[in-house]
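Backbone-to-sequence.
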């Protein structure tokens, strides 16, 4: 394809969606709407869209998106796992900060809070640039909060989550939606906890459970997450996983809080390194350990920005 602005040939990815029902058409139009609303470096940009046979029973929608040759975060983590390498905690912080920045933008969007609902490593693209990771796939997005007022609505939300929210990254409140509950941006925060775990340990915290055939729902609702005994990451990051994955949604911090504290931690490390103190990039030993322990997420309340 030729870029009209530069007349250069560029590669693009094309998402093809075949609609057979009114609900299908509504869903794709909603996805395009969210694309048009969103403008952030850590969220994929829609280049163009079109529809073929719009009045037929089988309309085809085409969404033209940027092509990322480096693939997804899931691909990158698998490659690291195969080669027996791992990310330093500084690299984990950098990647996670980019992801949180995109999520924070969604959750505080000027038109109202937007939930991605399917944040996972496969939906995060690697740019290989300073712009950092890019979140893709807006097909599951919805506005928030949703107040659950009756059993029919609760079951509809639960069934929709089963279809659109990947099971290994699905928040506990989506496995058993209760009347009187509120489904809000906290579901994305839970998914961020799963992504952080994967960045550090190259697998989803419930992957072994799923492989064994055990109930992921029960594991999630009990937050049955185990940090590997041989972990060399600083306590700050291990603790953050559990803060993000608090079973009670109201106990999870907002994305802005997490992002601000990660950036603060990065600045502390940078400042200490510039002062000539010894910092280890790989195992969190030395003065980095002191910095990590001074950053406390456990005491944060949801919505607080310190």
């Amino acid at each position: 394809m030729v870029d009209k602005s530069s007349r250069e040939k560029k590669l693009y990815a094309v998402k093809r969606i075949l609609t057979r029902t009114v609900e299908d058409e509504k869903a794709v139009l909603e996805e395009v709407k969210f694309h048009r609303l969103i403008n952030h470096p850590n969220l994929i940009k829609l280049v163009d869209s079109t529809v073929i046979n719009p009045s037929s029973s089988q309309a085809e929608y085409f969404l033209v998106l940027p092509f990322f040759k480096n693939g997804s975060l899931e691909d990158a983590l698998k490659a690291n796992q195969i080669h027996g390498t791992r990310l330093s905690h500084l690299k984990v912080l950098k990647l996670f900060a980019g992801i949180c920045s995109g999520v924070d933008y969604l959750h505080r969007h000027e038109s109202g809070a937007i939930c991605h609902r399917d944040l996972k490593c496969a939906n995060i693209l690697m740019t290989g640039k300073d712009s950092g990771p890019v979140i893709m796939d807006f097909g599951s997005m919805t506005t928030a909060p949703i107040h659950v007022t009756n059993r029919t609505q609760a079951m509809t939300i639960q069934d929709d989550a089963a279809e659109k929210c990947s099971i290994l990254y699905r928040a506990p409140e989506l496995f058993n939606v209760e009347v009187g509950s509120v489904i809000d941006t906290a579901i994305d925060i839970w998914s961020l906890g799963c992504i952080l775990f994967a960045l550090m340990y190259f697998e989803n915290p419930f992957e072994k459970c799923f492989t064994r055939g055990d109930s992921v729902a029960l594991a999630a609702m009990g937050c049955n997450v185990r940090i590997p005994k041989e972990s060399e990451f600083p306590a700050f990051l291990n603790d953050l996983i559990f803060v993000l994955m608090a079973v009670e949604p109201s106990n999870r911090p907002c994305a802005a809080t997490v992002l601000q504290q990660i950036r603060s931690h990065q600045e502390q490390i940078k400042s200490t390194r510039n002062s000539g103190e010894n910092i280890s990039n790989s195992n969190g030993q030395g003065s980095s350990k002191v910095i990590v322990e001074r950053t406390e997420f456990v005491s944060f309340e949801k919505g607080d920005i310190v």
